[in-house]
Target: Fumarylpyruvate hydrolase
Amino acid sequence: MASAFVIPAPSIATLPVSGSPALFPVHRIYCVGRNFADHAIEMGHDPSREPPFFFQKNPDNLVPPGGAVPYPKRTADLHYEIELVVALKAGGEDIPLAAALDCVYGYGVGIDLTRRDLQGEAKKLGRPWEVGKAFELSAPASALVPAETIGHPAAGRIWLSVNGTVKQEGDLNQMIWKVPEMIAELSTLFRLMPGDLIFAGTPAGVGPCKAGDLLEGGVAGVGDIAVKIG
Model:
């Protein structure tokens, strides 16, 4: 039988689910910028509760658990950002705040790897951030844990270490925009879909890593992540 496609169809990006042989198919990846006040301050911005802003990574930027991340090209300033990952099982537009958590399948832990020098150049020129954020293998993530197992974490330690030294540490209760608010706001800008992921922002302490570094982190009650660079 002839193929329905003129070129080979790309594979679907997936993440494993803790305790299940089934995989979670990923549709889009949204990221929330400057969602911890201390991180906003360290990046030189006002930590007040301004409307959230979002950017995207691509589904095939994901690195499933156990994957390696070579040091990316065209950068001399690769940064780590530990984040809670929110996985959606339902979506829609203009989702009411009270119904937002009904859309959540589960949670995981991710690292938003950033080519900070390229992002900085883009900011200065008023250009999009994709070259700094949406490059290959820029989104390591853990297995997902269903919300029916752990509930909806609103507090708990979030941390990241480099070669055993803790560099980032905070608490989910420090997020400026909480998970239901992120979902509700995002749904006014995009039609959210089952399979969407939201990287929910990072606490202070972001910084550079180099080839050979071991990044380890976690979110209390959700999971852990470990990634070797290089």
User: Anything to note?
Assistant: The mean pLDDT is 94. The first strand starts at residue 14 and ends at 17. The chain has one domain: 14-228. The chain has five helices and 17 strands.
